[in-house]
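Standup notes
- HV: blocked on the assembly model, inputs below
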Amino acid sequence: NAGVTQTPKFQVLKTGQSMTLQCAQDMNHNSMYWYRQDPGMGLRLIYYSASEGTTDKGEVPNGYNVSRLNKREFSLRLESAAPSQTSVYFCASNRMGGTDTQYFGPGTRLTVL
Amino acid sequence: AQTVTQSQPEMSVQEAETVTLSCTYDTSESDYYLFWYKQPPSRQMILVIRQEAYKQQNATENRFSVNFQKAAKSFSLKISDSQLGDAAMYFCAYHFRWAGGTSYGKLTFGQGTILTVHP
C-alpha cells in the first residue's frame, strides 16, 4: 500500500518555465489537496478537490492551476514559474473533506531560478 | 479566520525525559479537529495524534498525549520517554469539522517547533 505518492521529488526550473507536479493516492479517498511549505512557516493550502470532478481555491492559489484527473490523481501546474514559487509542495488526501485526517505524500522540492 | 500559534520555535530534551510542546489557536467555531504532525528530516508529514473538539477526554497514542483546554484554546503535546527518533519539526494544525463552505477540509498549520533530542 503506497498511500500518497508524488513525482518528481526534486525539480529545478528557470523563471518562466512550466511544469506539472503529479500526485496519486491508492486509499480510495474522495478529497485531495495541494499545500506549499516555505521556510519558517507551516503548510498553506493552494487548491483542493473535495471530490472527483470538483476543484476549488485555497489560501494561496495565484500562479497555479490544478486538475483532478480521476479519483486517484490530482495534479498541480505552474504555467510560468517565478522565484516566489520556490518551495516544498505536498499533496494530501482524505476520505471526506472536513471529517477526516489528511495523509500526506513525501513532498516535491521545487527551486525556481 | 482561524489561526494557529506555536510560540516555541525550538525545544530540546534529554533522551528518556518528558517534553511538552505548546499550541494555541483562535476560532469562533465549536466543532473542529486538532492535530499534531511530525516532520522528520525526510520531510514526510506524519500524523502523531488527533483530537476531536467535542470529546472532553484527552487523546493518547503510546508515548504521546495531549492536554486539550477548549475554553483556553490550548492544545499541547506531551512526549514521554523521549527517543532519538522523536527529533523532528512538530506542527500543530486545526480544521473545521464541516463538509462544505470555504473552510472545507482546509488544515491551518502553526509555524512549527523544532525538537532536538540529546542522547
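- HV (later): unblocked. The radius of gyration of chain A is 13 Å. Chain A touches chain B at residues 31, 33, 35, 40-45, 48, 50, 56, 58-59, 88, 90, 92, 94, 96-99, 101-104, 106-107, 109 (CB under 8 Å).
- Next: hand off to the docking folks.
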